């Protein structure tokens, strides 16, 4: 029987739970049972209280049907707002649906809030894998296609360490034998996973759900409901229909643009690899950091499958896809470097073939060298795979960049507050004067007051923005410009 998990007092969360420049803060959580969430049991008490007052204390507390329905409307609105806030903000959603847990081995999820312009936050599931010879599992999670592993000594989640991070000397790369044992291959596979470069494409339902819970869309739906109550049937139905049509066209256009990025993914192809001290052929999606491979120019111009350091021979590569430079770059081997030089990826790019680039010409190693590939290719060692490559970083920047951008400035806020101030005064005047006329229904007066306040932001604005964004996307596509963030266009 395995020993019990460590006690809660054994762990103290460090100030920075995740060691990453792109993550502003993180916290560990355990999901709350459904009945303990604020929008279930606590608000249920308010519903029961409203029902009790409506039946037994109507004249004492409410006095009129209008205020009775208004109070119920406010309770329902707060309930819906709780649900929507969890969709709008990851941090708020975690507070509503989870409780904090200081012990990482008891926690089930981790809330990640990135720094500005590095995408949106996420509630990530903590994964566990057993560790041989240890009572504790290995904790890790994925955020934006990057794997973070928990380090027991520091109590911090850290990014995967690749061979390029170890500061090896050029001599160590020269004498490398690749993955020489089955144990090394198994350990590398468990740690890094396969060299898959799949760009995720969300479904239409997922994107459409994201659009219809946006604050603008919710505001539009609220206005449509008010127009229904005001007996503007045709206008309300037409607006509702057009709103869904425009949002659907934006979603379809966004899906089409994301499909274009699928062309950036690398399809697996056979490659010669030096494993278990012999040459063999595997698929490129099976490559692991530390593998030694043979690089040749592919007949179908398939790109380099991973970030590689050239060990012997040389290559000429086209890096236009990454840097925009149309001039081919010469990639020399570490044989031309001083043996004691320490490899640094940032300064030794002339020795590195980046994933996604295309090899134009290859010079094989001289005869008599330690490693000579059967296909006569240049010898290289795998540094990084998958989404951690240079191309992977570029794609992650495109996919996980900020999805919505708004004009959050003081002038806009003050202008809206200025309009709201006068709208409240006008609605109060309408209420006071309208209730003086006893022939006029108070519910109608109350509806007019709400319509006055909502008119501060034109109800047609979201639909007009959707139409403008959709037309802009079509114009950009005609110019062969593809946009994954249409929300930026109005700003």
Automatic annotation (TrEMBL):
The keyword Chloroplast does not apply. The chain crosses the membrane at residues 39-55, 67-90, 212-229, 235-255, 413-431. It is a multi-pass membrane protein. Its main location: membrane. One of its GO terms (cellular component) is endoplasmic reticulum membrane. GO terms for molecular function: ATP binding; ATPase-coupled monoatomic cation transmembrane transporter activity; metal ion binding; P-type ion transporter activity. Keywords: ATP-binding, Magnesium, Membrane, Metal-binding, Nucleotide-binding, Translocase, Transmembrane, Transmembrane helix. Residues 271-397 form the P-type ATPase A domain. One of its GO terms (biological process) is intracellular calcium ion homeostasis. Residues 36-101 form the P5A-ATPase transmembrane helical hairpin domain. The keyword Zinc does not apply. It is found in: Membrane. Pfam families: 2TM_P5A-ATPase, E1-E2_ATPase. This is E1-E2 ATPase-domain-containing protein.
